[in-house]
Amino acid sequence: MEYLDFELPIKELNEQLEKCTVIGKESDVDVTETCDKIEKKLIATKKDIYKNLTPWQRVLLSRHPNRPYTLDYIKAICGETFLELHGDRGVKDDKAMIGGLGKIGDQSFMLVGQQKGYNTKTRQYRNFGMANPEGYRKALRLMKSAEKFKLPVVTFIDTPGAYPGLEAEERGQGEAIARNIFEMSRLKVPIIVVIVGEGASGGALGIGVGDKILMLENTWYSVISPESCSSILWKSWEFKEQAADALKLTATDMKKNKLIDAIVKEPLGGAHSDRETTFKTVSKEILKAFEELKNLSPKELVENRMNKYFEMGPYKS
């Protein structure tokens, strides 16, 4: 397990608990009481730390190296039923954007999302979760197929942004994202969006238009990352924490501003601390959202979705 800077008190207590357990196993000394005290202190410390997280600390948690990624969710939720589909039928298969058919319970879904890598090699293979235009076109192709076969769509957002390289711009990155937003706004099947990690800029919006927007507790969703915001406003990354506060990018802020529909509770310590519970919770929330949408007609779905986005934005100082 890797620990972030603000989690170091937890690391120390975990190490103490581990040593205490080893002593108990390797000697005749009864350390049960000591272990219980450390365990109670560990739980209290965790509660204290995770109850008072700053926006920047939530950003760090969303990027935690042990945090589950899109394919982890899909494989855990759909199991052997997931069939990955490839290619945009135009340029190539973008490895940063994955998608395919799968079942959650007895219901079939089209699942789409950005995928990051686990180590240097896979991060390069997945382009750090930053999709090219062909990735967004692949996502749209799959969503249009879902519409054709009347299947609901689930998208998983976890990206630091769309790929900003010259070749991506040459192939129409902005148009691809804009086209997705346009087409998703009038797709005639239910769309459930789940933000499982980073939700940055147009890279997130390219698969982020939906009837229900769910956001995990320790994720962020914003037009720009705190580092980039800091570099623009202060010409330095040193003010990224202030930028994170000002951007109002946490799940609580998003819900307060009516930009998402629900916050998905994470286990104490974040999604990576108890993956199984996280997967079960996300699966349950997806099915709950689908139950609310499944009986709506295509016309009602599109009308409600349009109205939902038209109502976003009014602000009183």
Describe the structure.
The chain is an alpha/beta fold. Helices cover 49% and strands 15% of the residues. The chain contains 14 helices and 8 strands. α1 runs antiparallel to α2 (32-51), α6 (133-148) runs parallel beside α8 and α10 (226-233) crosses α11. The protein is globular and about 70 Å long. 39% of the residues are buried.
Summed up, what is this model?
The chain is of the alpha/beta class and 317 residues long. The chain has helices at 8-26, 32-51, 55-62, 70-78, 120-125, 133-148, 166-170, 173-185, 201-205, 226-233, 240-247, 251-256, 275-293, 298-310; strands at residues 83-84, 97-104, 107-114, 153-159, 191-200, 212-216, 220-222, 262-264.
Q: Could you describe the largest sheet, including whether it forms a barrel?
A: 8 strands, mixed
| Structural class estimated from helices and strands | alpha/beta
User: Unreliable segments (pLDDT under 50, ≥5 consecutive)?
Assistant: none
Tell the overall outline. globular
N/C terminus separation: 44 Å
Summarize model confidence as the mean pLDDT: 95
What's the tally of helices?
Answer: 14
Helix content: 40-55%
* Rg result: 21 Å
As a percent range, the share of strand residues is 5-15%
Number of strands: 8
Query: Topology as H/E string?
Result: HHHHEEEHHEHHEHEEHHHEHH
Key words describing this protein structure:
317 residues; 8-stranded mixed beta sheet; 14 helices; 49% helix
Q: What is the fold's blueprint, element by element?
A:
Elements: H1 8-26, H2 32-51, H3 55-62, H4 70-78, E1 83-84, E2 97-104, E3 107-114, H5 120-125, H6 133-148, E4 153-159, H7 166-170, H8 173-185, E5 191-200, H9 201-205, E6 212-216, E7 220-222, H10 226-233, H11 240-247, H12 251-256, E8 262-264, H13 275-293, H14 298-310
Parallel strand pairs: 3-4, 4-5, 5-6, 5-7, 6-8
Antiparallel strand pairs: 1-2, 2-3
Helix pairs in contact: 1-2, 6-8, 10-11
